[in-house]
Amino acid sequence: MQSLHIPMTLEEFERSPARFGWKHEYWDGCAHLTPMETHVCAQVKVERHEFQTRQRIASRPVTADDADALIACFIETFEDGIEFCDWRPEDILHQAQHKITGYFAGKQGTPSDVSRCALTDDGEVIAAALIADHTDAAVLDLLMVHPRFRRSGLARTLATHAMNELHARGILTLRSMYAVCNEESTAWHEGFGFRELPDLHLAHLRRSYFAGETRRCEVDASATEAEREEVQRQYDFWQRRTAELEAICERDGFDAVTPLRQFTW
Length: 265
Description:
By secondary structure, this protein is of the alpha+beta class. The protein has 8 helices and 11 strands. The chain has helices at 10-15, 67-78, 89-104, 154-168, 183-192, 200-219, 225-252, 259-262, and strands at 4-7, 22-27, 30-35, 39-45, 59-61, 110-111, 116-119, 125-133, 138-145, 173-179, 195-196. The longest helix has 28 residues, at 225-252.
């Protein structure tokens, strides 16, 4: 995936709706949009889930022998992903190797035997959910599905299997982290039950985003009254939420509103 460079006038740029989680710049007669490297930290209470899948595909526990196949699946899954916007292929390969070998080496926490991969009939790894164990929670360290098999329920099936195994072992919490600009990942996590942890940086980001959208609606004649009201409602909410988190930060310190610093991921 590449950054977006869209020819337009400055007036058109100022009237264009912004993409949340993207950096918007204007120069040389073009709007330049680049995804931010900002992540959401979320967690879900570990409970038993019912399996729901639209395909019957074989799965089994992950082992260290799967490292090369997982690296290949990682590249197929993420090479056009928003997280690796503007990355060179060789850099994505290096990141895939670093991520998978680091997982089995325990650099993200103790590799859990509830981790699972899905395979085609000829043994190709097409999806995986890698779980790392920590003292206070389990972490969904990596969830990936080959592009050919997306929206088939594989991600939910693998995560559900892990969730049920964790529940049987008395684990109370599963954490995860995803790019704030990745709408597909955001929707999947929210649909699975993950809830964002209080984060002052994200509150500031959302407040700024809706402040900008409020200004845009003021100069954009095509903005509807319903759109203006919704943007204002969101800005008012994040203004209040930011003030609440700033008060917590003042009272309890920066770590209390920065989940990246509270936990091991």
